[in-house]
Amino acid sequence: MIIRYLHSDSMIEEADIVLCIGFFDGIHIAHQLLISETIAIAKAKRLPAAMMTFSTQVMAFIKNEQYYFLTPLEAKIAYAKQMGFDCFYVLEVDQALVNLQAEAFINRFLIKANTVVVGFDFSFGRYGLGNTESLKAHQEFVTTVIPEFTDEGEKVGSSRIRYLLSNGKILSANRLLGKTYSIDGTVIFGQGRGKTLGYPTANIDYDGFFLPHIGVYATTVIIDGIAYRSMTNVGKNPTFNGCDVTLETNVFQYDESLYGKKIGLAFEFFLRDDIKFASKTELIAQLHQDFETINRFFDEREVTHEKTR
């Protein structure tokens, strides 16, 4: 797969491609529908399939805000490869790109395409004045618009998924994502407090990722391609008067050092809020209970999977 990084003054040289465009944060079920349609059109027309995204979220750039993503760029690239795309374009978001007029955007990046595939609410160009009607006005390429995809009467989108994650509604968020919400990060040194509680934890550098609601979760950890059950805390360690939000996971049946290793953490379900306990003894008792609850969850899920085979 060809990967190209484009600036506001770049031109796409590849002609007769079937190109989908979007930020694709989360690559949720609505994104997946759009992406699958792009691949299907490309196969039917026997043309190369291409995917275009942005280096960061445009509105966050305009507002000069830190953007915490659901899906990093590397994961989008990996997904595009898995889906069989031939080209992957990354538009570098800067002031020049933000100021680019809609017509200039089309002439530089889309004009040579055979087909452009976008969502119903796609906008582009300065002030977001470019839209699906702007694309349809061009006869040089075919514009395919994917209609709004809803769930329980609401639009499926990254904003809704963020809301669900922020409120601990992991199962609902995962359903809209079409997969478990995951964070990849390198294990860094922490306080080492988990060892004194009998539940040593790996402290994960979650830099740039959107963190779900503060609390305790049943999670799956991927270490060197192998999945392990785990208990994860997103929080400030209130029992010990912590201040910074940390992401720490206790990996079941794993005793080797994880420092410096990059691991994946998939959130399965929300267990409880992160609360302040009156004593260390009370906290340890709760951790024992959490451990049993999480193992029961995984055991029951495995039984269910066996019955449905």
CATH H level of the largest domain: which superfamily? HUPs
Structural class: alpha/beta
Q: Can you name the CATH architecture of the largest domain?
A: 3-Layer(aba) Sandwich
Helix content: 25-40%
Q: The biggest beta sheet, please? A: 6 strands, parallel
Helix count, per DSSP?
Answer: 10
Low-confidence stretches: none
CATH level 1 name of the largest domain: Alpha Beta
The shape is: elongated
Calculate the terminal CA-CA distance, rounded to whole Å: 35 Å
Rounded mean pLDDT score: 91
The side-by-side strand order for the widest beta sheet comes to 1-4-3-2-5-6
Along the chain, the helix and strand elements come as: EEHEHHEHHEHEEEHHEHEEEEEH
Quote the CATH topology of the largest domain.
Answer: Rossmann fold
How many distinct domains?
2
| β-strand amount | 25-35%
